[in-house]
Amino acid sequence: MKNSLKLSAITLALLAANAANANDHTVHVGGQGHTHKAEAKGAAQAEMADGEIRKINKNTGKITVKHGEIKSVEMPPMTMVFGVADKAMLEGLKEGDKVKFNVKQEGSNYTVTEIKKAQ
């Protein structure tokens, strides 16, 4: 009975340790750890498209942007109307502003998920 309790305690300890590590998304390659979330955010920042605002409609949450290639959605350079994820994103922006932005594709719709003035 004593051995059975010890075995149960050890099993529970191992399960708890495994559960604690379940949320750790670090991949160790050659002794170096890389966190997927950090890499994804860095990649997203590096992949922001360049554009120039041609028109803003704050009422409808639409923005017309003349942009370069948007690699994340495999879109060539063009001028296009996008919806924005949140109308508040348009505050502080005006026609003619140079911007960097990210786009998400859902079916045939393209939505600006992040936008900031280019520096």
UniProtKB/TrEMBL annotation:
Pfam families named among the record's database cross-references: CusF_Ec
UniProt-recorded name of the protein: Copper-binding protein
Top-level taxon of the source organism: Bacteria
Record flagged with keyword Signal: yes
Position of the signal peptide: 1-22
Keyword terms of this UniProt record: Signal
InterPro entries, A to Z: CusF_Ec (IPR021647), CusF_sf (IPR042230)
The organism of origin for this protein: Limnobacter profundi
Region annotated Disordered, chain positions: 26-49
